[in-house]
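ok here's DNA helicase DnaB-like N-terminal domain-containing protein:
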Amino acid sequence: MYSEKLPPHDIDAEEAVIGSLLIDGTAIYRIATLLQSPDF
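and the structure:
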């Protein structure tokens, strides 16, 4: 059986960021340069 390895991820962190952006769409301009893939 073949199983593909998934990279580490944090669904809660992703949901928090997306939820925050839904509340304040302009927040993307403040956080876009701060967030990186390893954050999740």
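+1. The mean pLDDT is 86.
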